[in-house]
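[SOLVED] Need 3D model of a two-part complex

Original post:
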Amino acid sequence: MSKLTDVPKRILIGRALRSDRLGETLLPKRIALPVFASDPLSSVAYAPGEVLLVLSVAGVSAYHFSPWIALAVVVLMFTVVASYRQNVHAYPSGGGDYEVANTNLGPKAGLTVASALLVDYVLTVAVSISSGIENLGSAVPFVVEHKVLCAVAVIVLLTLMNLRGVKESGKLFAIPTYVFVAGVFIMIAWGAYRGFVLDDTMKAPTADFEIKAEHEGLAGFAMVFLLLRAFSSGCAALTGVEAISNGVPAFRKPKSKNAASTLALMGGLAVTMFCGIIGLAMATNVHMAENPAKDLLDNGAALGGDYVQNPVISQVAEAVFGNGSFLFIVLAAATALVLFLAANTAYNGFPLLGSILAQDRYLPRQLHTRGDRLAFSNGIVLLAGAAALLVWIYGADSTRLIQLYIVGVFVSFTLSQIGMVRHWNRHLATERDPGKRRHMIRSRAINTFGAFFTGLVLIVVLVTKFTHGAWVALLGMVIFYATMSAIRRHYDRVAGEIAAADGPSDDSVRPSRVHSIVLVSKIHKPTLRALAFAKLMRTDTLEALSVNVDAAETKALRDEWERRNISVPLKVLDSPYREVTRPVIDYVKSLRRESPRDAVSVIIPEYVVGHWYEHLLHNQSALRLKGRLLFTPGVMVTSVPYQLESSEAAKKRARRRQEWNAPGAVRRGPVEKRAKEPSKSGKKG
Amino acid sequence: MSKLTDVPKRILIGRALRSDRLGETLLPKRIALPVFASDPLSSVAYAPGEVLLVLSVAGVSAYHFSPWIALAVVVLMFTVVASYRQNVHAYPSGGGDYEVANTNLGPKAGLTVASALLVDYVLTVAVSISSGIENLGSAVPFVVEHKVLCAVAVIVLLTLMNLRGVKESGKLFAIPTYVFVAGVFIMIAWGAYRGFVLDDTMKAPTADFEIKAEHEGLAGFAMVFLLLRAFSSGCAALTGVEAISNGVPAFRKPKSKNAASTLALMGGLAVTMFCGIIGLAMATNVHMAENPAKDLLDNGAALGGDYVQNPVISQVAEAVFGNGSFLFIVLAAATALVLFLAANTAYNGFPLLGSILAQDRYLPRQLHTRGDRLAFSNGIVLLAGAAALLVWIYGADSTRLIQLYIVGVFVSFTLSQIGMVRHWNRHLATERDPGKRRHMIRSRAINTFGAFFTGLVLIVVLVTKFTHGAWVALLGMVIFYATMSAIRRHYDRVAGEIAAADGPSDDSVRPSRVHSIVLVSKIHKPTLRALAFAKLMRTDTLEALSVNVDAAETKALRDEWERRNISVPLKVLDSPYREVTRPVIDYVKSLRRESPRDAVSVIIPEYVVGHWYEHLLHNQSALRLKGRLLFTPGVMVTSVPYQLESSEAAKKRARRRQEWNAPGAVRRGPVEKRAKEPSKSGKKG
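Solution:
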């Protein structure tokens, strides 16, 4: 027996994180970078293209604004990175945006951030997979021809992987991410070498096309609006930057410092790649249009609906490496893979955030249990369903999906930064050490600037993108917000209802005696076991109860009862309608009426079977009776199980389920830190 | 309190059938006829047309065989009616085909009949509704233009009606059925008067069309085969004849005699109507073709795909009464209504047969409970789903659906009649009274002829229709048969496993002591109640158990435990992975290991809530723990419910559910008779 339970436990210890073995599973920076940065780094695969797309509305001449827009994005990136470095230092326990907003700005701000993040996770999946499909499609045409199908297939694949519980290993992330980063850097370097040193002319496949401007000669306010819209689209490069601030506990010591340097490294890489790709796009004359079918002209003729506009990164790679060359294929594959990994991070983040929200009673409490397979499964399926729906509605078109994407990100950026300002204010009110104060004032300044800048971007995004799709994201946020507040209200109401009054004794009508009833339909092993157990309980009275639905059967039961000389008295209820539930309920109620201070204990023999279809064949009336009895005050219901042979199968299945590995374990870091956070334990009643 | 439970009871007594009030609810013949005969009578709406359709394959000249085929159908009808009159006398308790075959030919024959009947019920719905739609369509063109949609809509409507529990009142059936019968008779009489007395020429709308024979000049074997196929199609008129034999207990006394006369009356009416319609069709020159689009010619040109071939009964009515005349419309409406009522009888029969099969453990046992809403609902939904699927696949084309229809009917006719022969043989072996013997020998002769004739028809149907669709019905039967035998095998296996050994005491390892554990997460009213109840049980040991998933919460719990001075010792289990289930299971197992002869009683405080969505928010981990505990031997699990305010809503809902009225109550007749039948009580172990 001890062997049987030890084996899964030992397997478990090998995987799950126990306080005494934590050191080994913590992430070194070189692994933490790919784990946390696959989302923000992968966004350079689509962000540069989006900038050019929007600019093309005003014609190809507007492309010369792109370096300025890139510069604005870079400044924003540095601001955000600098701001989050403050978060990381202030919340070494992993203060995600939700917790920062919740702690410093109150539950409404926290819930707003949470809604924004949930929407964002859905969009991360939808956008990353759509973009991954487009990048893969530049090397494998079949994929682009069946875009929606392939995108949904990838979603299904990721969902199944996560439902089965893949372990998020550092290596899984490290290889494609580093290949991707290296590929992009080689491309930038080789492109620069060919351009500046060899003086080659590199031509993107779209270099010879013309762009028909939708609004020729835009100027003044309209032009500013367009530039702001292009900037908004470029901000897609910033999505996922906040991930590290959630994952500080997963870093090696010194945690905060390591997290902050990783954050800086990530920002540096992202910015370099973003600018490099924009630069190469300019150098190789990439032409992108919002509606390539009609706005891209080849010798004056529109290209038509069959034309597939490849992503900027792939066009640039084609110009630099040559179409179909080894490096081109490797880069396309790595790009797609990194984008799929970025989608996978949402599969980890969504249920994790769900469990934190459940802890604060905004979501069903069962999501709270960490590593509970069912809880995670629900979250994963919800995420996958919503993402697949979006992919299907938007035809797996990353450009259209990105319109929805940025709102949520900047809502949480802004609120998180405002929260940080409050955080520093609060600490400054009590801190006396001038050195620390100086530090705090500096941090506060950075966060204030971050809050201001990200808030500005949020307004820009809302204004320029609202009608383009941002309203969909806002609607999603409102739905999440409303649902979660309703759940919280429900829990609060119930908590008030069941709160124990003070004083040592509470239940005013304390029952004085117990009347036990064993339900009997036939004499078989489960019944005999239930009778034996009931006798052991030594309650005040004990009787067996049967319902007469078939006279012959009842007579047989009575006869056998006598023949076996069973010492418990057998009572038979008549049932003119051949029901079982109602006579039992009525009888129990009549007992309670006779002596209201007595409790009634109903003991039900139950079979335990192994397969779901066997459940359909057994115990249904017992289950329904149990359900009804629970509504009757003063009654307790006892199941005495009898394990059929087939129940072994179910037992094994349950054990397997328990050995399941929740996704996102690596990035979540050790367990015990979170439990001690004041923001949580303080809220429990 | 007594008022509250009495009201639903009184309502119930008014509806359900209690032995002391049975007389009033029994059916007089004038009501029994429409209740039981809507199915067989309504089939004259499609059977005559099917005969003409098949004959048309050999050209219009083959139509002169139709009186001979009608004659064969009449002879068959009389045979079947005469045979079933014997059934009715032999099984006054309502021996349906299943029970006759089961009792006399053994369980395999019984199960075959049951499978055939289940398939038949599905087809009754599909065929009757499709035909009803076609008849309605002859007056309302919209309906025919959206045939499948309308047919499915009617199925959905009937399903919802039956799920809500309409009471099958005699009047509901009586009015349309009598209007239909009267309408057909008026039509026949008026047509005969116009034809013979007034010497009017009556022309059906298709009278001037020509039929392009698919096989001109068929002769010899091919012609015989075609005639047999036409006869098979005509046999559709016999479907539903057996219904009365199921419903003998619903008749007024003398039950068997009244049932037998009703059967004879029904046979007479059906035959007259069938022949009358065939006669009128010949007189008014109705032309029907299997493929009207290409085989019906108007002035030598095919009519094409848009042409709608109206049913014979409607064409005849148009010829006799005039198109759009009041009587024409009334007859079309009554025909459609009777056909829908015929479909409704399947909604009553299917779950009823299901409950009988469940009694014999061929179907999940919970279907057994008579009047159990859930059981009936499952049957109704299954029936509706299968019928809707068939309607959709076959485009609501009654002609194509009828190809599937007759097989099941004749399988059960034949086996039932063979069973009756056995029945008489058995009784003749012991009966000594010469008068009774004479009677029995006469009955046996009738049933023998019936068995022979219906068996012959079954072979004819199988041979002539197998490739036309009968294989689908056979496949359905095989699926039902296999499923039901598998269920029976499962029940038998479990019954063997749990059978109590003989002798007064059985459980060899009888537990000697009980160790009680109350699960505690927080101190609130449900916990306090569970503790109070547990103390009352006076088991050998009692402790409270909590799992430490959050150190702060656990400390708060310990403190409050002390402060309240609760006399039960509190044990806290550590949970390094923050699970709840596993530590509790492990602890219980360790208790069992220490003292294997002790039983463990786990007491769980539970909230009872009122809405399904509240269930999602509560008790999930308790439920899962309960599920796991049931697999652990030697454990009993007690729920101590705490009713939240919202649970009142659920209580009311449960009560409403119990007041629900199962469909088919009228035709089933009183309850207590069936219970006494030897075929059932003999089979229970």
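Edit: The beta strands of chain B are 210-211, 296-298, 301-302, 514-519, 541-548, 570-574, 599-608, 635-643.
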